[in-house]
Amino acid sequence: MYVDLGNGLASVASPGVSRESLERLDERVGRAHERIERGRKNEEFGYAALNLPQGADAGAIERAVAPLKDCESVLTIGIGGSALGAATISEALGLAGTHVLDNVDPAWVRETLAGLDLAGTAVHVVSRSGTTAETLANFLIVREAFEGAGVDWTERTIVTTGERGPLRTLADRHDLPVLSVPEGVPGRFSALSSVGLVPAAIRGGDVEDVLAGAREGTGVGDIEGSLFETPAYAYGAATYALSERGAAINAVLPYAEGLERFAEWFAQLWAESLGKEGLGQLPARALGATDQHSQLQLYRAGPRNTMVTFVRPRERPELTIPDTDFEALSYLGATGLKALIDAEFEATEASLAAAGRPSLRIEIDRLDARSVGALLYDMELACVLVGELMGVETFEQPAVEWGKRATRGLLGAEGEFPESEAVGEKNQLAVEPDR
Amino acid sequence: MYVDLGNGLASVASPGVSRESLERLDERVGRAHERIERGRKNEEFGYAALNLPQGADAGAIERAVAPLKDCESVLTIGIGGSALGAATISEALGLAGTHVLDNVDPAWVRETLAGLDLAGTAVHVVSRSGTTAETLANFLIVREAFEGAGVDWTERTIVTTGERGPLRTLADRHDLPVLSVPEGVPGRFSALSSVGLVPAAIRGGDVEDVLAGAREGTGVGDIEGSLFETPAYAYGAATYALSERGAAINAVLPYAEGLERFAEWFAQLWAESLGKEGLGQLPARALGATDQHSQLQLYRAGPRNTMVTFVRPRERPELTIPDTDFEALSYLGATGLKALIDAEFEATEASLAAAGRPSLRIEIDRLDARSVGALLYDMELACVLVGELMGVETFEQPAVEWGKRATRGLLGAEGEFPESEAVGEKNQLAVEPDR
Q1: Any catalytic annotation for residue A293?
Q2: pTM score
Q3: Based on the domain organization, do A236 and A143 belong to the same domain?
């Protein structure tokens, strides 16, 4: 991962951070780095995620999925961190036939199942606790669909879960292959484990290369504790500084369709890790060049509360634009889509700088397994750094528990979950059409 | 469209708006309404969009697409407002076989084309000016792909464009069916015209019902100038009030996969219409229930700068969850996905209220043509109201021009477009991996 902080400097943008401030901040980065290294060494909760690229066993994943390699589709059943990493990696590698059931919309679940040839579909069920309501409800429905189609689901299913729990019990009962969610790793930091890698492995992605990229990107084991040396720290520290100076929003704008899911993965990482105690930065997921025609007006002329994170591959295939009988477009005739999207990337970045709006540039070599592994790893490390600088509990997500308990109460266990009583007390001010 | 402002009240949330403030604001809503009505009556630029449901000729659209009704796929080539409305309506109506080329990523364009059976594919090219670089580049590539496949593209293509321009010329030269972009309507307000309706019409959506829904939803022609009477004004005024009180971010959280694109459409409408002169509110697109496992931690415990807009259909199909051998999940056995997603919706809404975070609730009857037409129309009207209350030029988007000119310069006309010179002057502070 390559980072360029140039357009986030105070000499360009407001909010912006001066070089002098970055130099002062670098001392704190050094201390945060020591904390991170200690956490990694001791395999502390959360920090352990940063050891996944060395610890993950690509061979074990490959062996577990070997019987499923002939499947043309793989359906991941999970939600949040149990789905986004898998979707991000599969999409970035351009692997066809990878699907995700990460919602409980009945119409959509039915339609997704109807679109699959179940005889050629592998199922990957992911839940650390083995009790996630959305995931297990969907799994029960999928299992029934397989039975209805006369396909033995036990021959097609692989499970990734914790050491205990109902999903582990079920897997043991039906003799399903099971991979373990790594210990000490929150879901949103688990992409570089079986949680994120199984679907890619089934569909022929090079899982070992993803891990190798993650190891090499920043130079794991040999990370320099300076934002001027380590790209992940450069991105994290500059984003923290811009956030402190007013960038409440971080609009992530990848210029590649294959990174659309990456922006979603990043959004979970950033929001759930840093959004606590009144702190945090809203990750706004976007897509270049498309959102130039949607969000750019606001980024350039709206409130000075937004920084943009540009992301692009340095190399990509070309697709020539045929010669044209549109005179107004003859300037495109000599070029191709790669030249066009790259020109739009650079012009949009410059247009923000010209308006004094901050942006940071992230580049990877190309959309391949190594670069994607490096990108995910470095963004995780950047996030952990920002958590240290903010002083929050990066690896917890306490604010989501209330809603889970209220849901449980609404579904028939009111006594145990008093939160559900508050749902009925809703304060109303309804405005409805007059018919 | 039904709106409930209850959880945006100051008695629930901070930021929040008191009933008294809403009553005072309603006087301004009344005056803004008069301005809007005058603009509609005189067909003024932008305001004219609010007359589309009466003016759009569903019959003309149906006649134009009649020869393409046997196509199993329709590919819309457009970007921004020329694509999002079409995608939103097609997706909300659950129409299969609708695809959009709204980006110039070469790998993705190639892959999209490879996935289509061109002999059964209709093409809808949309550009008001007829000069949009991304759209025409993609159209040239698609045309060549049809030629390569031995399929006559002139038999498969329908064009929506302005009265003049290269795309109009080309359509005339090849005798293609052409529909006109309505006069006086910016792209982001054009969903309820041929721009947004053609793909749905080709794939069997009930275009007349979409328009009827838009006419009936708010009661066009008989809109009350009060936020307490008109749902669109209720949503717009409350959102404006919350924005004034600190809600810099509007997280749009539809609880239906079929409304995922709606959140994107809304994001363009909101960002491009209101993001100017340092004003505006960032529309963060999200999706329920999925984002409970991603963004909710931040919405509930992060900075008090975010309001959530919940959107859901009141009715949807049920999908029973089979009886289970997971003991921990036996509470799901008696229920279904509809009950589950509805419980999660209500629990999540209540969980924000319990944390004192503002939200507004929007409901539609169900995901059908009438309700979707009403939803889009009412959100457009809400946006126009907010523009009036903010005092901005809702229908312009001047800040995107700089980047378009710089792109043009980078592609070989530097002299004409001096903006491109600034691109080369980029201020760099690069941090790269040490290899």
Answers
A1: yes
A2: 0.97
A3: no
